[in-house]
Amino acid sequence: MVSRSCQEVSATVLAEVHQLYGRQSHLIDGGSAREWAETFVADGEFHSPSYPAPVVGTDELTRFAELFFERARDAGEVHRHVITNVDVVAVDDETLDVRAYLQIVATARGGDSRLVRFTTIADHLVRQNYSWLIAQRTVRRDDS
Amino acid sequence: MVSRSCQEVSATVLAEVHQLYGRQSHLIDGGSAREWAETFVADGEFHSPSYPAPVVGTDELTRFAELFFERARDAGEVHRHVITNVDVVAVDDETLDVRAYLQIVATARGGDSRLVRFTTIADHLVRQNYSWLIAQRTVRRDDS
Amino acid sequence: MVSRSCQEVSATVLAEVHQLYGRQSHLIDGGSAREWAETFVADGEFHSPSYPAPVVGTDELTRFAELFFERARDAGEVHRHVITNVDVVAVDDETLDVRAYLQIVATARGGDSRLVRFTTIADHLVRQNYSWLIAQRTVRRDDS
Lengths: 144, 144, 144
Description:
Chains A, B, C: This is Small subunit of phenylpropionate dioxygenase. Chains A, B, C: Residues 14-138 form the SnoaL-like domain. The structure is a homotrimer. Chain A is α+β, with helices and mostly antiparallel strands. The first copy, chain A, has a single domain (11-141), classed as Nuclear Transport Factor 2, Chain: A (Roll), CATH 3.10.450.50. Chain A has helices at residues 11-29, 33-37, 58-74; strands at residues 40-47, 55-56, 77-92, 95-108, 113-128, 131-141. In chain A, strand 1 (40-47) and strand 2 form a beta hairpin. Chain A is globular. Chains A and B meet through helix 1, strand 3, strand 4 and strand 5 of A and helix 1, strand 3, strand 4 and strand 5 of B.
């Protein structure tokens, strides 16, 4: 086996991280934009090739999530962030590196569901006030 | 961070819940209808816009799961319940609220796989005999 | 409830297994063929109806993973193994049976993503040097 982490990830830490990822998509997909933004630290960063500049800080992240939700709604669709393959590496007691697959699935009212985009996210997490928050997310699209 | 639960979900409880959801789809998809029904309490309820009336109790739930399996088989297909984005909120020591994404994927023998339906489930779980069982499931379809 | 395992799976064991499955797909999908092969024991076996003979041992498994990655790349595509519905049954302290759904999703550069194949994996895991490794994997395709 190759060495891959400075230390083991405990069951407790993994549970906390799985809860964060389990919950996060429901927030942005359901229109809880501010709560989604608050899964990042106050100056958290979101980098994606789909957008020209990084989205930085709670206010920008909130607006980003609002736009995501509004655009889907205006198109008469529901968009979902499907998270799988969560892999957690402990950097130290207070920081984690997480990667996962994130698929965007869209469904038209009265219509079919389709896989819009397949991405991989690479997140850097930090512990704040006994919670894990995202300090930086970088999205890679499989089609680019 | 917004307050979202009366108490933390422990790693042990989360493991029990993930095992329940990891296992449940294999049961209905593989034709183990009675065992699927027994992941609900004896008077458990299943509410879905796809069906005119709620399905209530072990016998009705068993028949529901049998029909799901038989219809796929009669169509020459295999149908799968793909569960992701499990989010667990503790109401108290004995009850949990869980939401998750549940996709139905169908594959024809010798044919392609397709995403049939994207749904969100909202479950209410209770602890019985040291196991978590579903007291009520409500399904929301993205296309309706 | 039906009896289904000799013993409970602890939160710690489930965390270890979820980490293994969370990580494994990133390895083969990202071209880390040898590291993927090393998630199996040294004489580990991979059985699939997609291939005429079982793939056995670290060297063969490594070559298998290299070919998977090279074929996708040569086709101008990225292929992903999406794992869900992980269900873990403890046989004893040192061995586990795991089943899960494994979908292959392909994305062309500049093109759409598509679900190529839906499979179910049945794995037999053993503990070695404080890690869980796959002793045998059997893949079942829904289209065959």
